[in-house]
Amino acid sequence: MGNSITKFLNDLYDDLENASLNGDVERVRFHIDRGVDVNRSDDVRRTPLYWACEEGHLEVVRSLLAAGAEVNRYDRFGDNPLTMASKKGHLEIVQTLLVAGADVNRRSIYTDTPLHWACLKWHLEVVRVLIAAEEDPNRNLYCGNTTMHIAADNGNLWVVRPLLIAGADVNMGNTNDDTPLHMASSNGHLEVVRALLSAGAAVNKCNNFGDTPLHRASLGGYFKGHLEVTRVLLSAGADMNRCNNDGNTPLDLASKNEHWNIVDLLLRKSLPKITLDISLRIPEGQHIFGNSPYTNASYSYYKKKLEKIAGQVINERRGLIEVLRCTNLEKFTEGYVHCSKIRKSGWRTLSVEEMKILTLGSKGFSPDQPISKHIYEYL
């Protein structure tokens, strides 16, 4: 007899759970009227209210709450009905749960809160409601990421803005000491970078690896957005000369990863104005700037340009360039004349200055106006 009663009650609860999951409000009310326990949970401690909130069934949620469903009941992972409604972006259900006393700051076993999920899933209106309910925007996950880290990493400007208004800390670091600006810069999120800088983000703050946001933008410079992010960071006072823990400057990272648009920009910003004089530079073959990241990046940059001019890969052999093949320049240009003078030497080392002059040779200067009579800015 006892087993039959237990089975009967289990069947009733299962039917209530299924009705809540599927949004069958009439069947939910039918079971409520017959006294089925609305707070009974399944194997992972989830109640009918949890399922109704996850699936977005507002009327079912209201009926269950009116029948005494516990609004702050948590499953085995620490998630409550508010977490599920926030994750799925069910705004009206979120508002209903808050009115019923849902705890906005309760963490799951993974340390996330409803606001973390709303930011991650781009549910702007839910974010605003949770902030208005006084959820702390600076609560961090086990990895140290705050809601601002999440929004910045995703490039979600519309979520970043209300978080800033709510007082989110733009300089808080995660476990790697990455700030939201590091993340936005790394992913090329230009407008988010601008918003963070306007809110006082530290442009030269280093993470645990010694990387600044400029390092991150330079490393990720393959995409066009990173070039514009680099410009904005430089305008905000980013230090181009700072080395990370591996001894790399932003220019080193851009050059090593062949992000030539970033290399071009950093060289324009970093190197002094000089006079390129073919009569002085070429015979001596000296590097004007000595051994530095700028020299190495310049050399790689102009080698790439020469390859484009020559229409082929320029071979290297133990640091030597085969200049014999670098003759695909317009006749009677200074670059062509110079290349003709040195081609007989075959394999030899070219200085940065020689690389630049060969590159400039494609611009059509005539012998009557040799490069030695012109002043050029480096780049």
From TrEMBL:
<dbReference type="Pfam" id="PF00023">
    <property type="entry name" value="Ank"/>
</dbReference>
<dbReference type="GO" id="GO:0004842">
    <property type="term" value="F:ubiquitin-protein transferase activity"/>
</dbReference>
<dbReference type="InterPro" id="IPR002110">
    <property type="entry name" value="Ankyrin_rpt"/>
</dbReference>
<dbReference type="GO" id="GO:0085020">
    <property type="term" value="P:protein K6-linked ubiquitination"/>
</dbReference>
<protein>
    <submittedName>
        <fullName>Uncharacterized protein</fullName>
    </submittedName>
</protein>
<dbReference type="InterPro" id="IPR036770">
    <property type="entry name" value="Ankyrin_rpt-contain_sf"/>
</dbReference>
<keyword id="KW-0040">ANK repeat</keyword>
<dbReference type="GO" id="GO:0070531">
    <property type="term" value="C:BRCA1-A complex"/>
</dbReference>
<dbReference type="GO" id="GO:0031436">
    <property type="term" value="C:BRCA1-BARD1 complex"/>
</dbReference>
<dbReference type="Pfam" id="PF12796">
    <property type="entry name" value="Ank_2"/>
</dbReference>
<keyword id="KW-0677">Repeat</keyword>
